[in-house]
Amino acid sequence: MMRKILRDELDAVKAEGLFRSMKVVSSAVGSDIVIDGDRQINFCSNDYLGLAGDSRLALAAEDAAERNGFGSRASRLLCGNFEEHVFLEKEIARLKGAEAALVFSSGYMANVGVISALVGREDVVFSDKLNHASIVDGIILSRAEMKRYAHNDVRMLEKLLKKSGDFRRKLIVTDTVFSMDGDVAPLKEMVVLAKKYGAWLMVDEAHAFGVLGPSGAGLAEELGVSGDIDIQMGTLSKAVGSLGAYVSGSNELIEYLVNSARSFIFTTAMPMPIAAASREAIRIMQDEPERRLKVMQSAAHLRTGLGRLGFDTLHSVTPIIPVVMGDARRALKYSSELSRRGILISAIRPPTVPKGTARLRVTVTASHTDDDISRCLKAFREVKALNL
Ligand SMILES: *Cc1c(COP(=O)(O)O)cnc(C)c1O
Prior knowledge:
alpha/beta; Aspartate Aminotransferase, domain 2
């Protein structure tokens, strides 16, 4: 019986403290969220610049919908490629300092489509052990050989590269900001290795786009290596406050993807209101750099406070601050005690993070006030005293 088999598996997951279920949000304004009926301060959103709820995005979306409707009606290659998509891609390419950009309907689809288009059976992909699941899935789908190196370990990466002379294409792929650790990839060293061993380099700027770099273009911009990276990907769903993703690079890369990325070709184009809202957010992102400053300052303040309380925040240097708990059940207990104090922070458990490293993942946004940060620290201090 299917029902019985699934029930047994779910029971086993529950016994390990790894069961997942969804809570329902009835309202979200600024840093305030009402979830399952409880009002909390939200410390688990990826809306780093506080743009998801900005009325200017809603206005841009409304305007686009009034002109051409909500739905895009077809895939980009048929008749779904509206001016709105083209404007958005031009703007992203300009900001990224790239020849061209291509928009996908989500970050997951971008990674799966790009990697499986660029490499195949005769090829090898070098992937950081903590890379996002969508990168891993892209590699699996590509059927290329996957060689995983320890997190940010460029020496191990070089060893693997040295042993891989026989493959047709070599692709190194990394998150720039790691989504569960909040630390950053050693891009400068990786650029050197990619050149030395004739490998292509792809970066996923999902948590860096809008947050890092002088104009918010990401870590590659911050480190001045944008021109040395073959493939840059980022999402419109995090700091941009919308939905979708981009890939930027050479004209040839983009043309190649239009002709071969299956998650681009065989799917309906992003609705215009979403494209228009994304473009408006990218405009705001550049006109209001104080948002980047604010989120980085608040994050530094919170991280320092957590450190003083004796919590391990790993190597976080971004608005993503992990607070390592170890055991999954302990992380859950902590999360629920914080929630009783009005602080919403999710427990991240295996398989999202390696076994034994369950953690609270605290994310700071530009919507948080200084008072929000103080209240968060106060709640951590109180829960710590419970000795869970
Ligand atoms: C969130 C995320 C994605 C997926 O992006 P979506 O737009 O949410 O599908 C890809 N890569 C990384 C590193 C992410 O954090």
